Amino acid sequence: MTKHFGSSDMTDGMHRIALLGPMGIGKTTAIRVLCGSDIVSSDVPNLDRIAHTKEHTTVGVEFGEIDLGGGERVQLWGCPGQDRFDFARQWLISVSVGIFVMVDLGSEKVMESATDLLREISLAPTRPVTLILCAREASNDQILSFSNDLLSAGFGVMPVLPVDVRDRNQLLQVLEVLVAMLSLRSELL
């Protein structure tokens, strides 16, 4: 992946991509898989077992870098999924050129949580390029239905891509899609 973002898609000279989504969707896992163990993590023991049964949870932004080759480096930032960290999410949205909204199409609240995030992203002064990642197994019919629901909700045509966040090759493929969309946007500006 040697796509060039263009200067209009840079914030402070860095390419920042944020991973957003509910607690337990796999944001930390995705950053670890892409960046290795050399990430800045803010995982602590999960004391809110009612919200999620996972052992650890993120309580601050997480950070990792990946080298795309050709001198291109991307910073990946993960944000906690709990509402009490909305200040961190708002900051990440404001400094990111691209965003992955991670969803579980099997969740009863998937449309509500996705549209809340997409509305928040749409308020950014410079709207980041946004892709939806199905981070849990989903059928083609579920993906098509969800895409149509997003279109009906006024979000336009939005890429909805299935990905196993434990598979580096799949993550690199969706990152390549985002990089291509960023390059296309920079060419149009």
Topology readout:
Elements (H helix, E strand, L loop, with lengths): L15 E5 L6 H9 L7 E3 L10 E3 L3 E8 L2 E7 L7 H10 L2 E6 L6 H13 L6 E6 L5 H16 L4 E3 L5 H21 L1
Parallel strand pairs: 1-5, 1-6, 6-7, 7-8
Antiparallel strand pairs: 2-3, 4-5
Structure description:
By secondary structure, the protein is α/β, with parallel strands linked by helices. Helix content is 37%, strand content 22%. The chain has five helices and eight strands, in the order E-H-E-E-E-E-H-E-H-E-H-E-H. A six-stranded mixed beta sheet has the order 4-5-1-6-7-8, with helices on both faces. Strands 2-3 form a two-stranded antiparallel sheet. Strand 7 (129-134), helix 4 and strand 8 (160-162) form a beta-alpha-beta unit. The longest helix is centred in the last third of the chain and has 21 residues, at 168-188. The radius of gyration is 16 Å and the shape is globular. The model is unreliable at 1-13 (pLDDT under 50).
Strand content: 15-25%
Global outline: globular
| Major sheet: arrangement of strands | 4-5-1-6-7-8
* Annotation field: number of helices: 5
Radius of gyration: 16 Å
Mean pLDDT over all positions: 84
SSE-based structural type:
alpha/beta
Strand segment count: 8
Poorly predicted runs are 1-13
Approximate helicity band: 25-40%
Largest sheet: 6 strands, mixed
Cα distance spanning the termini: 21 Å
